[in-house]
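To illustrate the input format used throughout this study, we show a single complete record. The first block contains the structure-token representation of the backbone; no residue identities are included at this stage. The design step must infer an amino acid for every position from geometry alone.
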């Protein structure tokens, strides 16, 4: 499957999530959602296999600055800044993805190596 064949759209934040009741929705320039992907969190535009959590958690684990993370992942510093904002705002989505991934891994392990 080619990258351009993947259906994606920029991440929009509903006004209520953004902390206001005004009819405003922030849009991330470097992040996208993939409605057909099992992960619900955002991915980097142009990098459909790179979820926000992978970059932010690697950055935190390695004590990296914005610039270091941007260099290591070949992303603009602004993309890393957006990822950090998204990670903070939508941490519940990222945690749900992590919980689902662990459950899926456990189920696959039981299926492959029954006790």
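Output of the design step:
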């Amino acid at each position: 499957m080619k990258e351009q064949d993947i259906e994606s759209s920029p991440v929009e934040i509903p006004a209520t999530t953004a902390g206001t009741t005004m009819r405003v929705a922030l849009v991330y320039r470097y992040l996208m959602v993939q409605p057909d992907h099992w992960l619900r969190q955002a991915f980097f535009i142009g990098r459909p296999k790179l979820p926000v959590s992978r970059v932010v958690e690697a950055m935190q684990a390695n004590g990296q600055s914005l610039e270091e993370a941007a260099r290591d992942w070949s992303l603009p510093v602004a993309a890393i800044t957006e990822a950090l904002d998204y990670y903070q705002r939508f941490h519940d989505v990222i945690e749900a993805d992590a919980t689902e991934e662990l459950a899926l891994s456990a189920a696959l392990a039981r299926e492959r190596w029954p006790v």
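Structural context for interpreting the output: The chain is about 45% helix and 15% strand. Residues 3-112 form one domain.
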